[in-house]
Amino acid sequence: MGAKIDVNKNANLVTVKGGINTYPLKGEDVDCSQIPDLFPILSIVGAFAKGKTTLYNASNLRLKESDRISVMARELAKMGVKIKEKNDQLTIYHCKKLKGSKINHEEDHRIAMACCVAALYAENNSEIKNINIIEDSYPSFIKDLKKLGADFN
Questions:
Q1: Is 67 marked active-site?
Q2: What does pTM read for this prediction?
């Protein structure tokens, strides 16, 4: 997608360089058949990528902890992102500014974490109830984001 990423295996370190204007992301078509757990965060990344990002071969995601395709489409649309949802795919169009919203993750820990990341870039506050659901897979998620400078209440 165009990010500048350096991997230092000896130091167990990954460095991502750039931002919205330096090394901007470019939309891509991504086959999600083998990476269902990445679908929520890839949906968020797609909102920041120039052009459009299509996540396809994803019909099995309708049967996860939630219907991840519909939930991500709904939550991104609430944040001002243009979305096209089909049975087995989601197309996400670049969005210059996300709007804060009341997030309903439907008790899906991966959607809750992805929406937390989106909320960090929204121009106003977002509210995510029952955020403790993320402890299902990443108990220190909020603590780790705060170490990186995220502001959570």
A1: no
A2: 0.89
Question: What does the pLDDT look like over 51-62, one tens digit per residue?
Answer: 999 999 998 888
- Tell me if 16 is assigned to some domain: no
Domain containing 58 equals 26-147
Q: Are 101 and 75 in contact (CB under 8 A)?
A: yes
Strand 52-56, strand 29-31: pairing = parallel
Number of domains present in the structure of the chain: 1
Q: Which residue has the tokens 């001002």?
A: 80
Q: How does DSSP assign 46-90, residue by residue?
A: HHHSBSEEEEES-GGGGGSSS-HHHHHHHHHHHTT--EEEETTEE
**What does R_g of the chain's alpha carbons equal in angstroms?**
15
Element (H, E) at 31: strand 29-31
Structural domain includes residue 70: yes
Q: Active site residue: 37, 88, 136, 151, which one?
A: 37
Question: 108-125: per-residue pLDDT in tens?
Answer: 999 999 999 999 999 999
Q: How far is CA 46 from the centre of its chain?
A: 8
Eight-class DSSP state of 9: T
Please report, for the domain that includes residue 83, its CATH number: 3.65.10.10
